[in-house]
């Protein structure tokens, strides 16, 4: 697959592609970061195993604080620990943290400028059978709106590990978005990860283009965040096989937004589809639209949840039901190209 | 931590100056809170001029005690006390709530880095203090010598986050933590027991495994004894429920919830406040808990 970035998993499109939950990468990253930096402490709200903080707790029991089912306390205690020089990682489900405790995050972490790292697991409808109450679809919106907050949505477990390690080294309040279910390993150990940098993960080899094409020859740009990057890549492969010139971007840092790369992509493709497992309102696509609306307006189609709550079901049937399946991405790409 | 008569006299004089500064800064600001700042002046004075280990010239001295103000709206007393203690010039107090001022309407450490925390939204200060005390215990064990104080209002005990903080402090047996509740019995909409009853307040704290003391918050000997005892308790966090008289020092405003969130503005109100605070007088309120059994 020559179009695929060479640092991606070579078995990506195989039927037996390795699948690992993104949250697992967080757990591994936290353990490693804590071995390197003894300022790191972990706090959890009664979800230690499920949010993958268990290994940290077992290895560093004196640096772990069990908060119980109290997410407001989770982040405010963490803020106090950060005030004393600690680098606290707090984990819960995204609906509860940064959901239930948003104001405490705003005031005691962002306004106070404390380097607390918030890991929100079980984001998106792919949480599955737990149902809509537990499927966070608003977390990107409510975190990216906060001054000083860094927002990262890794595409797979490897990237989640790198993101966790990278964020352990910064002074910024940070939100890391994690998912529950196993999803394909898209990247490799060698793939670059830098907070604030988007990466091109797929780029069609340029073919002769339609003479009427006004741009540099690419037909469509797909910008994805989180595990849906995998579906974006599959759609890209299909479009490419149909003769379209496609670029796919992994936008794992949603804030600070990589304006330069997004504007460059818009220049090259003149039509964009944004793909995220989140409400369309206020999410990653909105961030891209804010950027392009101001700097280089092009048609944008948005893949995401359309102002609804989720429900119980299997991850894939939910993704399709709420318009985030491969078919939806494919037809959004067609619409975006027609709007050029 | 015993107080000599001379020290008490000094603290009384200092508190009078601080109360005056509070009122003058509020008059200048034309907005802000009067009742809480006035009724907490004795405790702030005691802490900054007697109990706290701190260095106003080196506010980031790492071994300082930490004082977290949870109910940020009473910051006029924090600012006035810090100014009198030497953190910044007294002239700054005239800039309370003005554009670009160090002295934001609610405390913001970005504008005044000597603050331990920014606050305003109620109910979150105790948990932050718990986090500080926990971090200190992780690094230094149970005998670091640093004390962690959280100053809170009674009204903010309506907020669940306050009790979440109380629960974990009890669980963790944070002996280095002292919470001081300004029990002035008022909040914006009325008397606390009408808005959302808190009594039996001491029992609530005891239930979370706290050492509880109820004192007259205007009596330096009471305050001193309570702080001394709080520090002597080795296996529990301590709460001092300081019974205070809202707007203490200006009798015309005292005990009235209407003065929770407004400054003296009319010429009569301004004259009343200034006249009341003219002379040094012993302000010991000899307040009994209204619900003492």
Helix/sheet category of chain A: alpha/beta
Fraction of residues in β-strands of chain B: 5-15%
Instruction: Please state the average pLDDT score of chain A.
Output: 95
Q: If helices are DSSP runs of H or I spanning 4 or more residues, what is the number of helices of chain B?
A: 10
Largest interface, C-beta within 8 A: A-B, 28 and 31 residues
Q: Give the DSSP E fraction of chain A (strand runs of 2 or more residues).
A: 15-25%
How many β-strand stretches of chain B?
A: 7
Q: Helical amount among residues of chain B, as a percent range? A: 25-40%
**Looking across the biggest beta sheet of chain A, what order are the strands in?**
3-2-4-5-7-6-12
Give the C-alpha Rg of chain B.
Answer: 18 Å
Per DSSP E runs of 2 or more residues, the count of β-strands of chain A stands at 14
Low-confidence runs of at least 5 consecutive residues of chain B = 288-293
Helix content of chain A: 25-40%
Quaternary structure: heterodimer
Order of helices and strands of chain B, N to C? HHHEHHEHEEEHHEHEH
Shape of chain A: globular
What is the averaged pLDDT score of chain B? Answer: 94
First-to-last CA distance of chain A: 28 Å
Major beta sheet of chain A, specifics? 7 strands, mixed
Q: How do the strands line up in the largest sheet of chain B?
A: 1-2-3-7-6
Report the order of strands and helices of chain A.
Answer: EHEHEHEHHEHEHEEEEHEEHEHEHH
Detailed description of the structure:
The complex is a heterodimer of chains A (340) and B (293). Chain A is an alpha/beta fold and 340 residues long. Chain A is built from 12 helices and 14 strands. In chain A, helix 3 runs parallel beside helix 5 and helix 8 crosses helix 12. Chain A is globular, with a radius of gyration of 19 Å. Chain A starts with 18 loop residues before the first strand and ends with a helix. In chain B, the strands form 2 sheets. In chain B, strands 1-2-3-7-6 form a 5-stranded parallel beta sheet, with helices on both faces. A two-stranded antiparallel sheet of chain B has the order 4-5. In chain B, helix 1 crosses helix 3. Helix content of chain B is 39%, strand content 11%. The C terminus of chain B is likely disordered. With 293 residues, chain B is α/β, with parallel strands linked by helices. In chain B, strand 2, helix 6 and strand 3 form a beta-alpha-beta unit. Chain B is built from 10 helices and 7 strands. At the A-B interface, helix 3 and helix 5 of A face helix 5 and helix 6 of B.
């Amino acid at each position: 697959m020559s179009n695929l970035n060479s640092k991606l998993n070579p078995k990506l499109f195989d039927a037996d592609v390795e699948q690992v939950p993104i949250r697992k990468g967080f757990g591994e990253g936290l353990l490693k970061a804590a071995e390197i930096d003894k300022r790191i402490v972990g706090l959890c709200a009664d979800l230690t195993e499920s949010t993958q903080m268990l290994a940290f707790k077992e290895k560093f029991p004196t640096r772990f604080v069990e908060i119980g089912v109290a997410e407001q306390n989770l982040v405010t205690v963490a803020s106090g620990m950060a005030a004393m020089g600690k680098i606290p990682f707090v984990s819960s489900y995204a609906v509860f943290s940064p959901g239930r405790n948003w104001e405490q995050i705003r005031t005691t972490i962002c306004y106070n400028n404390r380097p607390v790292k918030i890991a929100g697991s079980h984001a998106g409808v792919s949480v599955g059978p737990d149902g809509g109450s537990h499927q966070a679809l608003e977390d990107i919106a409510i975190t990216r709106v906060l001054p000083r907050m860094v927002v990262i949505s890794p595409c797979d477990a490897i990237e989640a590990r790198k993101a966790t390690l990278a964020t352990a080294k910064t002074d910024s309040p940070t939100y890391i978005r994690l998912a529950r279910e196993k999803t394909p390993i898209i990247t490799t150990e060698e793939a670059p990860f830098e907070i604030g940098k988007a990466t091109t993960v797929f780029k069609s080899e340029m073919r002769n283009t339609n003479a009427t094409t006004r741009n540099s020859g690419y037909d469509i740009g797909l910008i994805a965040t989180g595990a849906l990057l995998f579906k974006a890549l599959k759609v890209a492969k299909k479009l490419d096989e149909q003769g379209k010139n496609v670029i796919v971007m992994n936008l794992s840092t949603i804030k600070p937004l990589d304006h330069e790369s997004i504007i460059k992509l818009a220049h090259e493709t003149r039509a964009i589809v944004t793909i995220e497992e989140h409400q369309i309102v206020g999410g990653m696509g909105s961030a891209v639209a804010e950027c392009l609306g101001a700097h280089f307006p092009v048609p944008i189609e948005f893949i995401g949840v359309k102002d609804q709550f989720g429900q119980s079901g299997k991850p894939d049937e939910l993704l399709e039901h709420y318009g985030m399946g491969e078919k939806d991405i494919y037809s959004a790409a067609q619409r975006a190209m027609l709007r050029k | 931590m015993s107080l000599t008569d001379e020290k008490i006299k000094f603290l009384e004089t200092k508190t009078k100056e601080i109360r005056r500064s509070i009122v003058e800064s509020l008059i200048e600001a034309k907005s802000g809170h009067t009742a809480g700042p006035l009724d907490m002046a004795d405790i702030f004075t005691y802490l900054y001029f007697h109990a706290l280990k701190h260095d106003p010239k080196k506010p980031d001295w790492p071994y300082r005690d930490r004082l977290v103000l949870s109910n940020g709206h009473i910051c006029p007393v924090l600012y006035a006390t810090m100014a009198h203690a030497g953190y910044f010039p007294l002239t700054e107090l005239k800039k309370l709530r003005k554009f670009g001022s160090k002295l934001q309407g609610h405390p913001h450490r970005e504008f005044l880095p000597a603050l331990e925390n920014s606050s305003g939204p109620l109910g979150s200060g105790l948990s932050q203090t718990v986090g500080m005390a926990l971090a200190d215990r992780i690094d230094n064990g149970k005998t670091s010598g640093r004390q962690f104080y959280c100053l809170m209002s009674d009204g903010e005990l309506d907020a669940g986050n306050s009790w979440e903080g109380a629960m974990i402090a009890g669980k963790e047996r944070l002996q280095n933590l002292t919470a001081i509740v300004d029990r002035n019995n008022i909040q914006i909409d009325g008397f606390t027991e009408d808005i959302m009853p808190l009594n039996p307040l001491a029992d609530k704290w005891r239930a979370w495994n706290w050492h509880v003391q109820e004192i007259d918050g205007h009596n330096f000997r009471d305050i001193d004894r309570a702080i001394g005892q709080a520090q002597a308790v080795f296996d529990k966090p301590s709460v001092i429920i300081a019974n205070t008289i809202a707007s203490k020092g200006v009798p015309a405003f005292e005990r009235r919830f209407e003065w929770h969130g407004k400054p003296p503005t009319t010429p009569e109100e301004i004259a009343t406040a200034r006249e009341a605070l003219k002379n040094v007088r012993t302000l010991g309120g000899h307040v009994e808990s209204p619900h003492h059994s």
